[in-house]
Design brief:
By secondary structure, the protein is an alpha/beta fold. It has nine helices and 14 strands.
Amino acid sequence: MAIIVDSNSKVIIQGITGKVGQSFVERMLFYNTPLVAGVTPGKEGQIVLGVPVYDSVQKAVNITNADTSFISVQPKLVKQAVLEAVDAGIKVIVIYSEGVPVHDSMEFVQYAKLHGTMVFGPNSAGVVSAGMTNISDIHDSILEPGNIGIVSRSGTLTYEVIEMLKENGLGTSTVACLGGDPVVGMQHADVLRLFENDPDTKAVVYVGEIGGNDELESASVIKHMTKPVFSFIAGMYAPEDKRMGHAGAIISNESETAIKKQEILKSAGAITLRLITDLEQVAAKLRVSST
């Protein structure tokens, strides 16, 4: 079992005829992600590596019963793409596009919530349930099915975590990357709740970063979780008022520092890691937790 996406998902790509979209088609098909259609207005009737292209998400949904969308379009077109997907009944959306205007994100994130649609991103590396469905830029070749869940803001750090787990004989149930923008859809706490209710996820690795107050909400969830949560917050030595990598990774006050966030998570019961490489040292605990 997995959360968010699985082998029963039916995936479309919005922006399938673009360079990025086409590259994902090739990989999804090779690794058996259930890709059923693509959408590019004005390109209906085209075929991309055997995948039919439609003018609208609604038509793609009507014909294929699609429920999941990977969006890779120009930043200025993302809002319309999300609203169209939500209106068509899509329930999981991954926004791969970067540089989406913040006011657009605020609008479509709220719209999606009102309609019960899960949005990952903007600027999300994606979501993957190993061996079932991959709507992310995490390459299938490094994934190993298992029962460790990962929820992260950073795609790069997620790759490191996956590799360290794999080197220690551990695989993942679902990996969910939230995105690095100041305003994103799904939060850590939302995914933690899903992991807690997933019988095949036995432990969770939580990767956060400086900036924002997401950890306050996460702590209230972790406090009641029965599964161990291993947390790492990137940006331990980041100076105040200096953006570090992601647009949302900037310290505005003391409560948004890595140290303070780790304190909050530790007080809620999380097992905190000072360095991401410390994960290797707790691999034995993870193995015990996941059995």
